[in-house]
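Write out this protein's structure.
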Amino acid sequence: MKVAILAGGVGSRLSEETVLKPKPMVEIGGRPILWHIMMHYSWYGFKHFVIALGYKGEYIKKYMVDYCALNSDITVKLGTGEVITESRHEQDWVVELVDTGINTNTGGRIKRLAPRIGKETFMLTWGDGVSTVNLHKLLAFHRRHGRLATVTAVRPPARFGRLELDGDQVVSFEEKPQMREGWINGAFFVLEPGVFDYIEGDHTQFEKEPLENLARDGQLMAFRHEGFWQCMDTLRDKVRLEKLWESGEAPWKIWE
């Protein structure tokens, strides 16, 4: 099964980083967040990726083209220019990199991937969020209900830490917990190719008319995920993810 990842947005709220590189290439623990997302899918056995490129897409192309050399032992014969790659990395991924335009909206990017996806069920997520979503359970849920689309519903992360007080005494302190009420779109979709018919063109925002109309038609189901989920929209989000990684307790690092 193919995994589509949208990696073409500008990431204006993370401009400190994205002025030089696309948002999915912003690093957590020395690796692009895109790599973390792909490692998550790969751990569950989904290793064929179709990545929608846009803003500064050449950075992602270069990273993927150079990936084997940068993560393997190599021998260089300077006299002839021959480079021998002695592969030692474990990622047996297939990665299709598709230019989908600089200003194309999310729905348009998805529709432009249709020829690469074909007529099979596929997964879709954004290139800026990590989680502990169990992808096998997500797919099983999608297959059971038989509708066109499944979205992973998550609890929104709190913006600030939560204090529990007894008078003036703090009896509990929780730093930026997941909120206990309400659900939001957490991406990590499973979709049928019929979803492409709900997307008009390049200007279409997937989170607007397509998802609204799928819901109206009874074709959108929600897989509830109560565990860890975090998007990287701001520098504050990046710092939080970095701290989790450096602590050795990154919840999304399920592959080791």
